[in-house]
Amino acid sequence: MLEHKFLDHDFGHSLDQIYSVFDGQNITNTEVHIQENCSVNPLFANTVSDIVYEKQIPLVYQVGWQTFMGVKIEVAPGALVPREETELLGATAVKVLSERGSGQRAIDMCCGSGNLACGVASKIRDLRLWASDLTDSTVQLAGRNVKSLGLSSRVVVVQGDIFAGLSELALEGNIDMVLCNPPYISTSRLAKDRAYLLDNEPREAFDGGPYGLSIHQRVIKEALPFLKPDGWLLFEIGLGQEKQLLHLFKRSKAYGEVQFAKDIFGVPRVALAQRIG
Questions:
Q1: Cα–Cα–Cα angle for 68, 264, 114, nearest 5°?
Q2: Which of 20, 98, 153, 181 is 20 to 30 A from 249, alpha carbon to alpha carbon?
């Protein structure tokens, strides 16, 4: 586990300085452990977290699995390694679905390894869930995780561009929640200060287009035919994207008040809104 002494360094000027701290260190945990009373800039903390993952990912691939929401998830090249911050999205989804009662139906869009689908379904025993992604490797990996966790009777993995793989399953108007951890880093940042993320993981897991919001825009619109009138749409979002998400939801004129779930630093990392009409 990283010790607090790493947080004493000044990383304000160069990403290389951050790398220099971790070079040669025996990093054995993907968690950046920070006490709750420790004052740390959220931008810095999240950058450090990314670099810990980037340093550890080859080891994670060798081990072949990662724990997410208390379940063991197989990981493999070609799909995003589940991040600890995404557990906030999963926990928020579980809370909202549980409050709606039994017999809920959900869609995990951009499912990747299936970590969210498996994590949420493992917490809600009667949930029916459909997980969708675009690439062969992610769909196959998600399918293996669903099967290995004994969730095949309640979780279905499909392949397609956004909701295309769900179009013939008669789900329109019957979904209580769509949750989505989309790529949300801008293309320009992936060419600059976040280029290191592409060393081990696929571009499609990170590249959110010119502003990092291309998939958010599509899902806000394309989820509507599937959601019940009071159904929920949940996203993981990047640092500082809450204002843009507010604008996108408002522009759609199809959702109520946007709420945000915050991480341990008080930073909004999950956006959720309920369909109206």
A1: 20
A2: 98
Per-residue pLDDT reduced to its tens digit, 24-81? 444 333 333 333 344 445 555 555 555 555 566 767 878 899 999 999 999 998 888 8
Q: How many angstroms separate the CA atoms of 85 and 96, rounded?
A: 18
Distance CA 82, CA 176 (A): 24
- CA neighbours closer than 13 Å in the CB half-sphere of residue 202: 18
Q: How far apart, in whole angstroms, are the C-alpha atoms of residue 129 and residue 118?
A: 9
* Amino acid letter, 16: D
Query: Which of the 8 DSSP states describes residue 181?
Result: -
Establish how many alpha carbons lie within 13 A of residue 111's alpha carbon, considering only the half-sphere containing its beta carbon: 41
Rounded to 5 degrees, what are φ and ψ at 243?
-65, -40
Phi-psi region of 240 (alpha: psi -120 to 50; beta: other; left: phi over 0): left
> Has this prediction a pTM greater than 0.85?
no
Q: What does the domain layout of the chain look like in residue ranges?
A: 1-63, 77-274
Higher-pLDDT residue of 197 and 18 is: 197
What CATH homologous superfamily does 77-274 map to?
Answer: Vaccinia Virus protein VP39 (3.40.50.150)
